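Section 3.1: Structural characterization of target chains.
Under the original work plan, the team committed to producing a structural model for every single-chain target entering the pipeline before any wet-lab resources were allocated. The record below documents one such target. The sequence was received from the expression subgroup and is listed exactly as submitted; it comprises 478 residues.
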Amino acid sequence: MIRAFVLSSFGLLWLQAGQDPAKPPADEYKDRLAKLNDSLAEEHYKIGEYLFGTSMHRWARDEYRKTITISPDHEAARKRLGYAKKDAEWEIDPDAPVEIENKKKGDEAQKVKVEYDKRVEKLGTTLARQWVDLGTFCEKAKLASEAEAAWKMAVEFDPRQGDARKKLGYVRQGKDGPWLSKFESAIRKQMKEGIAKAPVGQPYKEQTDVEKDMGWKHEKRKSDHFLLEVQGKDQEWLKEEIKHGEHAYAMFHKLFDQKEELFQQPYNIIIVRDKSAHEQYVDKYHHGDATHREFVKKKCGGYGGYPRGEITLGQGANLHDFIVHMTAQELFETLAGGRRHWLHEGMAYHFSKTMLGTALAGCVNLAGTGSDKTAGRNYQNAEDWPLIIRTWIKEGKDPPILEVFKCHDLAEFSGEEVVKAWSLVDFLLTEHREKFMVFLSKIRGQKEEEDEKALQEVFGWSLDDFDVRWKTYARASY
């Protein structure tokens, strides 16, 4: 009774002093979150106003839409978008004068885009600090899930946010290297170091269909997921190629948490000795028109894909890069489907670059030879890619994300676009693996034209948002 009286007396004194009782932590969290979102909405509106002032109205409208998504009653943004309030509801005003197209083109538009990106990045840095502060409050208030969510938002807005990274268990790779989660750090280490322990298969004695059809005699080796046959090499050589394929196969399944086998039968890779044998193979098995057949002959290998592919051995000592690249690409095409070349090629290079540090194989012209749009710089040295990307972003010269994301014809996929595709995949895997997996499950079986909508649904990003977030990640990681 005495204790209750004392406590009630203290409460009375508190109220008499004009102070409100402290809110429960959950309510305080909601208030802080609301203020943070109001701040975010206002900043998007300010960026929209900058773009409006430069006559880049389409980009400005994107920012106004973000503003009202966060703060539906933001009056100024609503009016810029052509809304009017009627009976306490916002409705499109058909008589409102609105501008919807960008006025600047070419270099002038590019200058605005560079400044636009800088402003968005600066906003990200500011907001990231606010999300860290919110996470710290939640941690002290023992709101564990809310704290984790706040720190994840901080990293999303600014990948360089070290305080949030540490709270989430990330570890920096070297003094200036990327931040990696424990999972990502461990799996990258396994991808590099686990090849030596991978299965090597057994010699295969039965005559294959290709041997029978072509009258050739091959050295052959088979494992659970591969059947390799080669002209002019021995079993020890085949062991190494089988190991690279099996390790890439195992790592792919682990990376994407695949419990079922994605290859329903062993991947039969035929490795011919030279250009002449390659041409014989194409003449036998190519069923397309004569023009395409001649094109395939000139490629000197890589004809066909899973469940059977072919490559010319050439002058190289091994085919490690080709085996890893094609394994990852065929697995990913099984997982995601469609003609999503930025994903398929980007994932294949993620594997060959992570496992071997190379980017020698592929379905696109990385060498920069020829007379089409792929001609120009040689991008085959994967070690140069981070510096190339960093320079692109600094100068505002990276390939447009629309051309990368929506390319459905490999003949139109340039070397520089492939390099950006690799980095986009690297970003999604490193920073958003769980959402990335949801995105893949959503696009599987649907038309490629719906992918942009799926990106918005899963990540909450437009293509421009994706591009800006990727650039922020690349600046921080490369």
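The CA atoms of residues 219 and 234 lie 6 Å apart.
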